[in-house]
Amino acid sequence: MNYFILTYVIYLLASIALTVWVAKVLFKNGRIFLVDIFHGNNELADSVNKLLVVGFYLVNIGYMSLALKEYGSIASMQVVVEVLSYKVGWIILILGGMHFLNLVIFFKLRNRAKREKAFNTNV
Questions:
Q1: The domain containing residue 83 runs over which residues?
Q2: Which domain of life is it from (predicted)?
Q3: In the chain, fewer beta carbons within 10 Å around the N or the C end?
Q4: Range with the lowest mean pLDDT among 33-42, 51-60, 98-107?
């Protein structure tokens, strides 16, 4: 059995599944923030939300592709598990980092939109 191929297949399946799951959660729940940021303009919010998801997929799939190659030897199932835990662990950390980055950006944009709205109603 070729442990490299097994490792690659499991890594890609797990990484893609995690990326799709996180993207769906961000897409669904980020829409509320975007609608608020864009003052109820649902069409603009949905468009920006789709563009954010595309960027999210591109960054994560790009990293997955770069991290696919394994340079060490994989001679046993123990090493398969160790390599997978390392590689999938990095994917999870990157997904978590991107999630928090999205939250920070959304909150900053939302706060700015609220300030602009308050300024415009006071003028």
A1: 3-112
A2: Bacteria
A3: C
A4: 98-107
Environment class of residue 27 by beta-carbon count within 10 Å: exposed (0-12), middle (13-18) or buried (19+)? middle
Query: How far, in Å, CA of 12 to CA of 6, rounded?
Result: 10
Q: What is the pLDDT of residues 53-98, one digit of tens each?
A: 998 899 888 988 888 888 888 889 999 999 999 999 998 898 888 8
Q: Measuring CA to CA, how many Å separate 122 from each of 110, 114, 115, 116, 118?
A: 18, 12, 11, 10, 6
| 119 found inside a domain | no
Question: Is residue 89 a part of any domain in this protein?
Answer: yes
Instruction: Indicate the number of domains in the chain.
Output: 1
Tokens found for residue 16? 């893609």
